[in-house]
Amino acid sequence: NLDAADLWSANMAGADLCRAFLKRANLSYAELTGAHVYGCSAREVNLRATTQMDLTVTSHSDPAVVVDNLEVAEFVSQMLEYTRVRNALDAISTKFVLILGRFTKDRKAILATIRDQVRKSDLLPITVECTRQTRAALPGAVELFSRMSQFILVDFTEPDGVPDELTTLVAGHLKTPIQPIHAPEPLGYRMFAEKQAHPSVMDPFVYENRDHLLEAIESVFLAVEEKAKEL
Fold first, then answer.
1. Is 208 left (phi over 0), alpha (psi -120 to 50) or beta?
2. Do 63 and 128 form a contact (C-beta atoms < 8 A)?
3. How far apart are CA 19 and CA 38, in angstroms?
4. Dihedral-angle region of residue 160 (phi above 0 means left; psi in -120 to 50 means alpha; beta otherwise)
5. For 113-129, how does the pLDDT look when each residue is reduced to its tens digit (9 = 90+)?
6. Pairing relation of β-strands 96-101 and 149-155?
């Protein structure tokens, strides 16, 4: 119980704050990057100059859903618990970008590059780690987040559960732009290529490595914005 706790300038990077009660806590100038905040209560928290990126909002046993703001984390957690509100989301104007993919340890730098560019565009990344267990563990979550997002970035380099999620989105007549990206010779994109004719799905962008992605990602974002205008 950290109710009204003074945590000014505290270093809680990577901390396990699951189900922590932080109401009215002073987190100004604190470091929260990489913290696990599943079930965390963060009402009336002082977040002045707080560093709060890559916050995991799902439980340890579920596929990771990661956001960049403690208050957003609490909101997303509530949506995961109460997915019945999804029908109201069509009327909500948001700044979210949904990132789907299987980002293993060797590929975290790619994910970091994508997230950083989303932030530089004054948007908020929501990352869902796609495994074959994602749909069972987080039923309806990807569909929910897709309705909230301005566009969707999907990395097919390590497919795992990615094709299943995308097939479901396309079948649901989604009008949110979907930008597939992948390293050369992806296994997963071949499984989804037949859906590429759908108006929401853009041509895939192939990146050679992290530096190539970093160099080109701004132009990829601009193309997605143009696609959104068409839809």
1. alpha
2. yes
3. 6
4. left
5. 999 999 888 888 999 88
6. parallel
